[in-house]
Amino acid sequence: IDSNNNLLVSGNLDFYFNAEDTNDFNNPYFVKIKNIYYRIDGSEWNNTENNKYISLAALSMSGSHLLEYYSEDIAGNIEPINKKYLFVDNFSPQVIFVPYSATNDMPSKMYLDNDLGYIFVDTNAYFKAYAFDITMSNSLMSGLKSVYYAVDSNYFTNNFSVYNNNKIYLSTGYHILASKGIDNVGNESIPIPFKAVIDEAPPIAHRIVVDEVAGITNTDMGDVIQITHSAKVYLFAHDPYLLEGAEANSGGSGVAFIQYQINSNGFKNYESPIDISSGGSGRYIFDYFAKDNVGNVSATDQFVLIYDNTSPQLQITIPQPYLFDN
Fold first, then answer.
1. Is the pTM of this model over 0.85?
2. How far apart (Å, rounded) are the C-alpha atoms in residues 173 and 36?
3. What's the rounded Cα separation, in Å, for the pair 53 and 38?
4. Which residues pair with 208 in a beta bridge?
5. Pairwise CA distance, residues 119 & 73, whole Å
């Protein structure tokens, strides 16, 4: 019964009718109850013997229902019809997890991998559970009674703990979070595993310089690269999902973007191969880095590209003693 005196029940509830005559039980002329009559939502009247229960199977549909009932004694006295509105709540509470930043307690950046079904967050995040009861528009909700949660192996052993609005911190790597809610009429949600990866590994950025005339490819090896023909710089990155070793399962949210700058002229997003031939011969200093989908940033790498497309000039010099006027 809620604060407005509404009766809320679940659809799997059975209950009893029990009628008593108001005469003195010690009176030898006490008249006993003959029948109890009831109907649901204006249907045909049904009768049942005293103390006979009825099932709410007829009320299995969530929503508001009108229950009417009265009794009759063997002398033919009929009780006035009683009316009671029932609100049937068959919906289980729903529970969701939301990552928050430990820095400012605001919702944290996260990345959903639809293929793997994982939620990736960074190491600065914690999780909070939010539960809410749901119902149909023509009914009332019984309200949330309690919330439970389990992490990793506790989920598989059904070892759930009461959730008291606490912050759930997880170590680096792959985890399973599960939760369930129970409302005030006993509807219990089925725990659904929530797969989370605490990603602390930054992406790894690479470069390739291709001399398109000579066909020479220069990769990450060496900090100074010299070319003599038109060339393009290719940048790429990957964010590995490590499965072995001390950092197992510590990455994998994916590369969000790569940025670069030339000669300290300001970083910008890398979108296509960089052609430096238009700038003419000279010395070009490249800085570049990559960032993944939860904010981990790689170290900024640097290399120098020396572009020399000027042909050498050959001069002959004859020393003075060997010059003759002839």
1. no
2. 64
3. 11
4. 234
5. 66
